[in-house]
Amino acid sequence: MYDNEDYRAFVRQNEELPLFFQDWWMDAVCGKENWRGFVVKSGNFVKAICPLMIQKRKFGRIHYTMPRFTPYNGVYYNYPPEQKYCTKLAYEKDVINELLEQIGTIDYFFQKFTPRFTNWLPYYWNNFKQTTAYTYRVNELQDHDAIFDNFQQNIRREIRKAEKMGIKIKDYDNIELFYKTAEKTYIRQNKKLNYSLHDLIQIDDACKQRNCRKILFAEDNEKNIHCANFLVWDKHTMYYLLGGGDSDLRTSGATSLLMYESIKFASTKVDCFDFEGSMIEPIERFFRGFNARQYPIMCISKKSKKEEQIQKLLNIINLIKK
Q1: Fewest 10 Å CB contacts: which of 117, 216, 276, 293?
Q2: 244 has a pLDDT exceeding 70
Q3: Mean of the per-residue pLDDT values for the chain?
Q4: Which phi and psi angles does 261 have, rounded to 5°?
Q5: Alpha-carbon distance 289 to 24, whole Å?
Q6: Are 140 and 166 in contact (CB under 8 A)?
Q7: Are residues 317 and 264 in the same domain?
Q8: Mind listing the pLDDT tens digit for each residue in 184-241?
Q9: Residue 279: inside a domain, yes or no?
Q10: Is the dihedral of CA 207, 208, 210, 214 positive or negative?
């Protein structure tokens, strides 16, 4: 087990931290023994933190990868007050260099950074690579009528259709029902969910204990569940973490209605709703239809030559086995 006490101490003192940087979140999605909270300090002042899931592979390799259920990780900067912009950039460079010294040799590294992270140059100068993903966010959530009016016409039409069919949004505290509903998304494609009920229960229990999750279902008059959303939040943002629905009922408009009601629920807790984005074109089009604003997500990676050679060798072995 890694000594994460400095990291945990910083978390306890900082309410502004995003949800996915919380130590209890990392415990739940990684296991206490499988992550390390890196802390960059100057004396007693914490300059930045970085939680990394650690996977130990064959031949002594270490992989730093994204945990399950976690859309963002990376670095959280703790800026000194009243920094000039030029000073802030220099601060970020120094932090990343110190962080990479702590991490040491990297076999494989992949992290998706939060939307607030905009400067990857220090990683570039250390021979990392970067690609861009996108999320969509709705801000200023209080005026529900204005939010609805800004939806694309097809989204508004789907919401009205679902309402006319008598579909209601229900708040059921039932993680097993959510899992069964999410499974139905993949049945038509003959695929399985990429997470287990056991893993889902772990993160659900952790969030329930801290009152930062809600499961919403869209249900018709005959008690059929059309779709469900699993929502989590921190002090400022609510995240559409997981969702799914019955593909046989997908034309009811319930998915659009459920998302609208999720946004309205978010307005009672926070001031931003994050769809978490998708690089899949139809899903991106759906999220965009809610007039959500696009935010770039930096995906930063590195692979050593040793890692590349071992992966090639393992691929050859797998081909021989086939």
Answers
A1: 293
A2: yes
A3: 95
A4: -65, -30
A5: 34
A6: no
A7: no
A8: 988 877 788 989 999 999 999 999 999 999 999 999 999 999 999 999 999 999 999 9
A9: no
A10: positive
Whether the per-residue pLDDT at 18 is higher than 70: the answer is yes
| Cβ 242 vs Cβ 232: under 8 Å | no
Looking from the CA of 160 toward its CB, the CA atoms found within 13 Å total: 9
**48-88 pLDDT tens trace:** 999 999 999 888 889 999 999 999 999 999 999 999 999 99
Q: What is the pLDDT of residue 1?
A: 58
Of the candidates 50, 160, 183, which has an alpha carbon nearest to the alpha carbon of residue 109? 50
> In terms of domains, do 261 and 175 share one?
yes
Please check whether residue 284 lies inside any domain of the structure.
no
pLDDT, one tens digit per residue, over 120-134 is 999 999 999 999 999
Same domain, yes or no: 67 and 31 = yes
Domain span at 263: 141-270
**Residue 70, CA distances (Å) to 53, 66, 167, 262, 282 in order:** 11, 7, 31, 19, 22
Percent of the chain with pLDDT over 90: 86
User: Both 192 and 122 in a single domain?
Assistant: no
pLDDT band at 105 (very low <50, low <70, confident <90, very high): very high
Q: How many domains does the chain have?
A: 2
Q: Are residues 190 and 176 in the same domain?
A: yes
Looking up residue 116, the CATH number of its domain turns out to be 3.40.630
Q: Write the burial class of residue 129 (CB in 10 Å: 0-12 exposed, 13-18 middle, 19+ buried).
A: middle
- Identify which of 83, 78, 132, 75 has the alpha carbon closest to the alpha carbon of residue 100: 75
The amino acid at 33: E
User: Is there a single domain that holds both residue 265 and residue 305?
Assistant: no
Gap between the Cα atoms of 114 and 96, Å rounded:
15
